[in-house]
Amino acid sequence: MDMADFERWVFREFKIDLSAYKSKQLHRRIESLMKRSKVDSIEAYIDLLKRDPAQQQKFLDFITINVTEFFRNPSVFEDFRKKVEDYISKGNRQLKVWSAACSIGSEPYSIAMMLDDILRGKDYWILATDIDSTILERAKLGEYSEPEVKNVSSEYKAKYFTRTGDVFSIKPELKKRVIFKKHDLIRDEYEMNFDIIVCRNVVIYFKQETKDELYRKFSKSLKKGGLLFVGSTESMYNYREYGFEKASTFIYRKL
Ligand SMILES: C[S@@+](CC[C@H](N)C(=O)[O-])C[C@H]1O[C@@H](n2cnc3c(N)ncnc32)[C@H](O)[C@@H]1O
């Protein structure tokens, strides 16, 4: 058995299409995980995953890499705010936003705080999706430790969180703006008519063909003039092919 067999098994078992991910990087990660789990063949690893749910979860967490932060890359987030304000000033007042690959929720809640601040309670809602159902449960809970909220200003902490001991909980008024849903960017249908799509720090793990496909679908899912915000290592060089113009380094506008 080789990695290709393993990928087929993972697809049958978990419905995750590993062939869409950059293979060298992915295989290195799987091999190092196997080493840590003290197995030395693909067969033995499949065996272990079949009988041990804790190992299964470890594998899925490892594959999906869910590192995240509130207001990740703050200066880029500031720029995002300006572009959103421009978009709103053109008369777009009811915003439908998608935070794709949202991990534990820091990204969609950051967007919610920003929009609440700009729109002062007017209409907006955020669809927040991820492939990993375990982290989505955490995201729905909306509870974070002090180090996890380090990028949140004290003004926003006071306004949008309640603090109990070391736990910072997102207030219900903000929470109700975010709808969490399981969604696989590779295999699932995309909703339409978004004003803004934020998809950061996930396409970096995908092969070029997969990225092309994703950006084409994001473009289709956006309204004319809508914004796509990507990660700080993910700027697109061929954005025109997908029907975008550049709004700034990591933000694209649908033509
Ligand atoms: C590094 S985190 C990025 C979180 C957040 N967007 C940010 O920039 O801080 C990557 C996320 O992508 C998710 N992911 C990986 N493959 C995915 C897929 N095929 N579809 C949807 N989400 C996926 C992972 O579960 C993980 O939560």
Question: What does the model show?
Answer:
- The chain has 255 residues and is α/β, with parallel strands linked by helices.
- It folds into two domains: 3-64; 74-254, Rossmann fold.
- The protein is built from ten helices and ten strands.
- The protein has helices at 3-14, 23-36, 42-51, 53-64, 74-89, 106-119, 133-141, 154-160, 172-175, 208-221; strands at residues 95-100, 124-130, 143-145, 161-164, 167-170, 178-182, 194-199, 222-230, 244-248, 251-254.
- The strands form two sheets. It has a seven-stranded mixed β-sheet. Strands 3-5-4 form a three-stranded antiparallel β-sheet.
- It is globular.
- The structure holds S-adenosylmethionine.
- The site of S-adenosylmethionine has 22 residues, from loops.
Spatial gap, N to C terminus: 48 Å
Q: What's the arrangement of strands in the largest beta sheet?
A: 6-2-1-7-8-10-9
Count of folded domains: 2
Assign the structural class, choosing from mainly alpha, mainly beta, alpha/beta, alpha+beta, or little secondary structure.
alpha/beta
Q: Let me know the number of strands.
A: 10
Strand content: 15-25%
What integer value in Å does the Rg equal? 19 Å
Order of helices and strands, N to C? HHHHHEHEHEHEEHEEHEEE
Fourth CATH level, the homologous superfamily of the largest domain: Vaccinia Virus protein VP39
Per CATH, what is the topology of the largest domain?
A: Rossmann fold
Q: Secondary-structure blueprint of this entry?
A:
Blueprint: H1 3-14, H2 23-36, H3 42-51, H4 53-64, H5 74-89, E1 95-100, H6 106-119, E2 124-130, H7 133-141, E3 143-145, H8 154-160, E4 161-164, E5 167-170, H9 172-175, E6 178-182, E7 194-199, H10 208-221, E8 222-230, E9 244-248, E10 251-254
Parallel strand pairs: 1-2, 1-7, 2-6, 7-8
Antiparallel strand pairs: 3-5, 4-5, 8-10, 9-10
Helix pairs in contact: 3-4
The protein binds S-adenosylmethionine (SAM).
